[in-house]
Each structure stands twice: as C-alpha cells, then as structure tokens.
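user: can you give me the structure for this one chain? tokens are fine.
assistant: on it. calling the predictor now.
[tool input]
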Amino acid sequence: MPRAGLADMRAPDTILPLCAEGLGFSAGGVEILRDVSLTITAGAPTLLIGANGAGKSVLLRLLHGLLKPSAGRVFWAMPTEHAARRQAMVFQRPVLLRRSVLANTLYPMVLAGVARGEREARAAEALALVGLADRAADPARKLSVGQQQRLALARAAALRPELLFLDEPSASLDPAATRAVEEIVLKLAARGTKIVMTTHDLAQARRLAGDIIFLHRGSVLEQAPAEAFFSQPASATARAFLRGELVW
C-alpha cells in the first residue's frame, strides 16, 4: 500500500472557505486596510499582489489571526475549535531554532499536539518534499538562506495544514532558490493544501496563481482568476500596475 500523502491525512470536514467581511485595520492612527471583503476557497494558489504599502502582509496576518482587526471579521465556513491547527504561515525571514534540521521540523508538531508516534514520519516526509532529507542531522542555522526557507516550508508542511499563508517566501532569494520554493509551493498545492501568498514578483504570480487578489491603498480592487486578471484587468488602477505605471 502506498504511503499516504499530506493531503490524504486531512479531515474530510473542510474548514474552507475562509471569509473576510468589512475588514479594517489601523495602527498608530493610520488606516492600513479598509472595508475588505473576500473569500478564500480551495484550489490553486491565491496570490496577493499590489504596490508597496498596499496592505498585503497586514491582510495575510489578519486572515491568519496574528492581528486583531479594527473593524469587520474573519470567519470560517465550517467553524471548529480545531481550525487554528489546520492553518500555518511561513514568513519572508524564518526564525530557526539552534537545533538540527530535524529538530526544527519536529518542534512545531509538539506545539500543535501531534501524537509522538506520528512526528518522525511526518518530519521525514516533509524534509523529503523540500529536498532536505540528507540534511536532517545538520544544524539548521548552517543552511544557506534558500535552504532555510525550504526548512520553514517543511515545518509548515509537516503540520498538514489545510490552509498555508506565505508572506513573500522568495523575496530575498536568488533565482535558483526561488525556483525551488516555487516547486514546493506547487507540490503542496497539488496535494490539496490551499496556498495564499503575497509577492511583488508579477512573473511569479503568473507562474503560480490560480486567482489574484489585487490591493491598492488598503482596499481590494479586484479578485479574479489569474488568466482573466492578467489578460483583462477590470480596473484602470490594475492596468496601470501591470504596466509598471502605478504611482502610489
């Protein structure tokens, strides 16, 4: 019998879609997001794009629950006390423990309450997925920047989330490391994990996105299938952004 993949172990009662309704966020008297309403459904990756300061990273943190909204709400279609355990997030600059690659992969599972007997197998599978199986015993902080980001993805994958938020995971990487991260993203998506990811790289958005959420000055101007957005954006602002002519 073939070994179960990451998606095969997911509970059948999906918590998606994830919805935002009238979402707003202010900090220090500055309004960062206003009246954001959207729906995240299962399927191919959703890419959040927009100019610097548009509110992409803040929106990601609100959706993940790291920030409390100033207005509106975020809610699941299938409310459950275990929803928080079925989502994960990877940041642009991952924080690694002063431990081995394997120990870094195991630790989040301990915090999440994964049964002891499952952790080693999950960690091995996740490290193989990101191409770090042969580095399991190495100190995590001795890895290259690209390898460290792959380790961060392995830690998230080992949790078997239904929804994975990625905040510009390849922004500081060279082209080869970026391609490696993109391949992992597509593998996770193919196994059933919903990816919601921010990026400044339009070429990357074209390669990865199933749909696009376009933000401008704290508002969502468009949410559309990627092909439609890139071929025929609905707003003049989006058209200017794609031409590289958008002035903040």
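assistant: here you go. The CA atoms of residues 54 and 86 lie 27 Å apart. The helical segments are 56-64, 101-112, 116-129, 145-158, 175-190, 202-208, 226-231, 236-242.
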